[in-house]
Amino acid sequence: MEEFLNCHSTCTLSTASNKRVRGTPIEYNYKNNYIYLLTEGGEKFCNLLKNCSVSVSVYDNFQGMGKLAGMQIQGEAFLIDEKSREYKDVLNLRGINYENIIKLPITMNIIKIKLLKAEFIYSKFKSLGYDSKQIYYFTR
């Protein structure tokens, strides 16, 4: 599962509040059961202010039923303070210089998602003797 998350870099972040649902394609980094997203803002922030529960989807392009590979993740989202050490560490993880980010005319936010549950559909599991759908619960 970690290999799958680490070999991809784009996901769909889904947020919701009241009757508003938003799905945002966005680049991510994965480390130690957390997904990190660098973003300038948008409707997803309105939703996150009211509801920190999110869904994240990571998947391969469809190539047929025998080659399925996709993960749907449930998690809790938090904003990382831009003056914190963790903010700088995440920028380093992405290969981005902190000094360059703070010079931008807009604030670049980092959303930190604590992974809670992953539903992983992976056709290759069958050849290993397992069901193609596996569910994993992350420790809190």
UniProtKB/TrEMBL annotation:
Pfam families recorded: PNPOx_N
Tree of life domain: Bacteria
InterPro entries found in the cross-reference section: Pyridox_Oxase_N, Split_barrel_FMN-bd
Domain Pyridoxamine 5'-phosphate oxidase N-terminal residues, every copy: 1-89
Name under which the protein is recorded: Flavin-nucleotide-binding protein
Lineage start: Bacteria, Bacillati, Bacillota, Clostridia, Eubacteriales
